[in-house]
Amino acid sequence: MAHPQPRANIARIPAYVPGKPPVVRPGVTAYKLSSNENPYPPLPGVVEAATAAVATMNRYPDMGSVALYAALSERLGVPVDDIATATGSVGLIYQVVTGFCEPGDEVVYAWRSFEAYPIAVTAAAATSVQVPLLADGRHDLDAMLAAITDRTRVVLVCTPNNPTGPAVTQTELDAFLARVPEHVVVVVDEAYLEFVRMADAVDGVATYRAHPNVVLFRTFSKAYGLAGFRVGYAVSQAPIAAALRAVSLPFGVSAVAQAAAIASLAAEAELLERVDALALERTRVRDALLAQGWDIPDAQGNFVWFPLGDRAGDLAAAADAVGVTVRPFAGDGVRVSIGEPEANDRLIEAAATLR
Ligand SMILES: *Cc1c(COP(=O)(O)O)cnc(C)c1O
Fold first, then answer.
1. Is 89's C-beta closer than 6 angstroms to any atom of ligand 1?
2. 225 in ligand 1 pocket by Cβ < 6 Å?
3. Model pTM?
4. What is the CATH number of the domain that holds 348?
5. Ligand 1 closest atom vs CA 113
6. Domains in the chain: how many in total?
7. 338: containing domain
8. Which of 93, 146, 159, 234 could form a disulfide with 168 if both were Cys (CB 3.0 to 4.6 A apart)?
9. What pLDDT digit, counting tens, does each position of 304-315 carry?
10. CA-based nearest residue to 277, from 75, 38, 42
């Protein structure tokens, strides 16, 4: 009997492996450091705004997210036409490949990087061209340039790179953009932008203003602590933003998510204080691990990376034993999110047992 068959590319889509929930053990507080979430609860104004929006659940959300666009436009100092909101920046990754790639067109990105990239590229029947990271976890931008062909439509630059941690500098990005063909869309995935504390950091807004082929992807999931609500946005010159909006899921960003995002922007000062605290914790954790003799790449996001290769499972097990759930990538390494100080202390202790 003939059964309905999905397109051939569907069978090739890799599975997304979500960060595991913490293991619950009597008498042990469990910590989830496996999904790069913000450990702090939302600020009070955010919960209230979201709660008020819950009362409108019988209505569709504002499909144009008008108030959210206005708030972002004002905050960033960019025209509304240059913005595209989406169901998280994962939604934007699907939209950019759907909007710019014919089947078989190529998407160049570093690997290992964000695991949603190969899923979205394969789902769109486009072709992934994965360029190995440098040994220190940074993007090999020269090799990425060399990987661009006539079929390349999109290049994804993940900075800071999830899961390894380093970010590209403005100088590196400028040199790269000067050599990428102008018809190729360059995504600068800035999911962890707010955590970056380094010299010569990328100024995304200035960069997109100077380059009609650049699009910034940003999210409320990480620094803003709204991972559960699924809201992200892109910033580019108007033609790319219009294409991203054209292929978006209608009514994808819920009213609750829109309200929470707007309230989070209003509470930005307090939110960014928490981000500062996380960035300081990140430095404390990385310094402690370096002192133990670990080789931890520069960490510009809210996570650290252990390049453990085949021993990834050992650290995951040692952390599990003290109630901390981390994110192992088999054969490659372990990513650990920065959490509450107590959780970070346990991670440091677990890491010490493997030295
Ligand atoms: C977490 C993450 C995102 C986005 O997440 P959303 O929750 O879909 O906004 C995008 N890019 C990278 C690199 C990430 O780590």
1. yes
2. no
3. 0.97
4. 3.90.1150.10
5. 13
6. 2
7. 19-36+269-352
8. 159
9. 999 999 999 999
10. 38
